[in-house]
Specification:
The chain is of the alpha/beta class. Helix content is 20%, strand content 28%. A six-stranded parallel beta sheet has the order 2-5-1-6-7-8, with helices on one face. Helix 1 packs across helix 4 and helix 6 packs parallel to helix 11. It is flat, with a radius of gyration of 33 Å. The structure holds adenosine monophosphate and magnesium ion. Adenosine monophosphate (AMP) binds next to helix 8.
């Protein structure tokens, strides 16, 4: 375990510095615990508190526990104070332990200093003090001096001192497991509007995957874990945008026809012209070639005549024409792509152009899919019309794959609570999130909701939305479970609307809202207020949105017929042909 200390006289700003460092370093993805050395008069609870009464009565150790935290108090009863190494041995493993106030122990530490405390800066010649953090400028220090408020600089220093680098960071939120009530919507809400349900997911979910380093060539679809800083400018040097002839603009004479002698040689991409082009002369130059010294303007080869050793063209050329400036696209040191961005093919081009060959990305989210229901059988396996071919599993697995996650086929489980419990147990071991379909309502055979209720983490979300029955959300052994409706149309729409952005957050992306377009409707439709509706839709040859002939929720063929969804807002609406409606193409849902 790595340790680093913060010391300083009373009121020197130790605790404030500790607080800022803990926040900064945990935000960077490292797990941090702290040790605080307190005065002998300090106590952990107050006289009269139940735990203090246990201690007073003679208990050797008191383990105090509440819903929010627990603490083990051990009575020294006159024995020597524990040494730091013994105390540290009691902590669970973490990346870094920050220790406040242990002056004597010889661990590396930073000393906080405030001018107003008027104490000598370093009390003893303590060479375990490796830096100072001061609120005034200090001259002549042999060790680094930081501004007391330079949290970022001090955190960089501490991490570098203990040998922790960014690529070792682990997920922040995984260290802070999802709370059992993370899906709990405020009480008293009956039918929850879609936006409210989404806002709840957005606030309560966090990343649950680690960080790894990958070559850019293997990073397609991965989520960037850090901002990417340009290692060099694009373009790195001024160059020609066309094939033509380069020269210094100042040598041109007014607007008349120009005749410039050509120098011997040429400038091509990868083979620069190394000499200087004399004022009043021109050089043959090809696209991408660095502008030689003495060249700031290029004339297109189609606009010139080359006769013998001269190039002739009309004079109306602009200064700097057909050239690209160094860094006109991206400058070295600029943040080119931000953390949380999902890498697409053009992003790989940009990273490569900026000299970045490997990136730190989040690990791939493992998405488990289970189908439930006694009636389900593998497609084509029986002619029995009482059975239903399992349509949801291939759909949800392939959605996960399209979203860039690792699909984990967890199979099909009948309506049997014990078997379903076993399946969830096994899944929680190998998945970061579980999508189930079927059994999510409150009927006799709705074992998914019953089990999640049993685990204490069930929340039935009655979303004011069509299609969609209740969604059963919960945590199974700390793993979020999305209990989607069994009906394939409802399962699909609920997966696009809720599971997609939720999985995005779990995988480290920013919140994803599907981008829709206002298009004119080719249909008529009335809806009442009180719920949002998603209609299977596509854009017809006239550029208008048409909707599937039936809104029946069993009509899976409508999902295939469609290329997207028309979203009708929560309020009442009477759509007439020609009215604008919001069309969200499947592509906007990452399909
Ligand atoms: P449930 O939510 O379990 O009551 O299921 C609602 C409807 O969806 C029932 O008609 C089920 O047979 C059907 N269903 C459930 N799961 C699937 C599945 N994986 N594939 C196709 N239909 C399903
Ligand atoms: Mg069922």
């Amino acid at each position: 375990m790595k340790i680093f200390g913060v010391t300083g006289w009373k009121n020197a700003g130790k605790t404030g510095l500790m607080e800022r460092l803990v926040r900064e370093i945990t935000t960077r993805g490292f797990s941090v615990s702290t040790v605080k050395h307190a005065h002998h008069s300090f106590d952990v609870d107050h006289p009269g508190k139940d735990s203090a009464r246990h201690r007073d009565a003679g208990a050797r150790e008191v383990l105090l526990s509440s819903r929010n935290r627990w603490a083990l108090m051990s009575e020294l009863r006159g024995e020597d104070e524990e040494v730091l190494s013994d105390l540290l041995a009691r902590l669970s493993p973490v990346d870094l332990v920050l220790i406040e106030g242990y002056k004597r122990d010889r661990h590396p530490k930073i000393e906080a200093h405030r001018a107003i405390t008027k104490h000598p800066l370093i009390s003893v010649e303590d060479d375990s003090i490796v830096a100072l953090a001061s609120d005034v400028a200090l001259a002549e220090s042999v060790i680094p001096v930081f501004d007391l408020d330079d949290t970022v600089g001090i955190a960089d220093f501490v991490l570098q001192q203990v040998g922790l680098s960014v690529s070792q960071a682990k997920p922040t939120k995984a260290e802070m497991p999802l709370k059992n009530d993370c899906f709990a919507l405020p009480p008293g809400v009956d039918w929850t509007p879609v936006d409210k349900a989404l806002a709840h997911l957005r606030e309560n979910l966090g990343r649950c995957v680690g960080i790894e380093t990958r070559p850019v060539s293997e990073s397609l679809g991965k989520v960037l874990a850090e901002d990417q800083i340009a290692r060099r400018s694009n373009p790195p040097a001024p160059n020609s945008a066309v094939d033509g002839y380069g020269f210094a603009y100042t040598a041109l004479l007014g607007k008349q026809s120009q005749k410039l002698p050509l120098v011997d040689g040429r400038a091509a991409a990868g083979s620069p012209y190394s000499a200087e082009v004399p004022l009043g002369q021109a050089v043959r130059i090809l696209t991408g070639a660095i502008l030689p010294k003495g060249v700031d303007t290029v004339v297109l080869q189609e606009d010139v005549t080359v006769t013998g050793l001269n190039v002739t063209f009309e004079g109306s050329v602009k200064a700097g024409a057909n050239t690209r400036k160094a860094g006109e696209d991206v400058k070295q040191g600029d943040a080119a792509i931000g953390a949380g961005h999902v890498l697409r093919p053009p992003d790989l081009a940009l990273l490569s152009a900026l000299g970045i060959d490997s990136v730190s990305v989040f690990g791939v989210l493992r998405v488990g899919v289970i189908s439930t229901g006694d009636e389900l059988v593998p497609p084509g396996s029986t002619a029995d019309v009482a059975s239903t071919y399992d349509a949801n599993r291939p759909m949800l697995l392939s959605l996960a794959e399209r979203w860039g996650y690792q699909p984990v086929d967890l199979g099909h489980v009948g309506d049997n609570r014990a078997l379903l419990r076993d399946a969830l147990d096994a899944s929680a071991q190998k998945c970061d999130v579980i999508l189930t379909s079927g059994g999510a309502s409150a009927g006799d055979e709705d074992h998914m909701s019953a089990l999640l209720k049993e685990a204490g983490g069930l929340q039935m979300w009655r979303i004011a939305m069509k299609p969609g029955r209740p969604l059963a959300l919960g945590l199974w052994r700390g793993v979020p479970v999305f209990g989607l409706p069994g009906n394939p149309v409802a399962a699909f729409v609920c997966a696009l609307i809720f599971a997609r952005p939720a999985c995005g957050v779990l995988s480290g992306t920013a919140w994803q809202n599907p981008v829709g377009f206002e298009v004119s409707a080719s249909f008529e439709k009335r809806k009442k207020a009180g719920r949002r509706e998603y209609l299977r839709a596509r854009i017809n040859d006239h550029g208008k949105a048409e909707v599937f002939a039936s809104e029946g929720s069993g009509r899976i063929s409508g999902l295939t017929w469609a290329d997207g969804l028309v979203e009708l807002e929560d309020g009442a609406r009477h759509v007439k042909p020609g009215d604008l409606v919001r069309f969200i193409p499947y592509g906007a849902f990452g399909l």
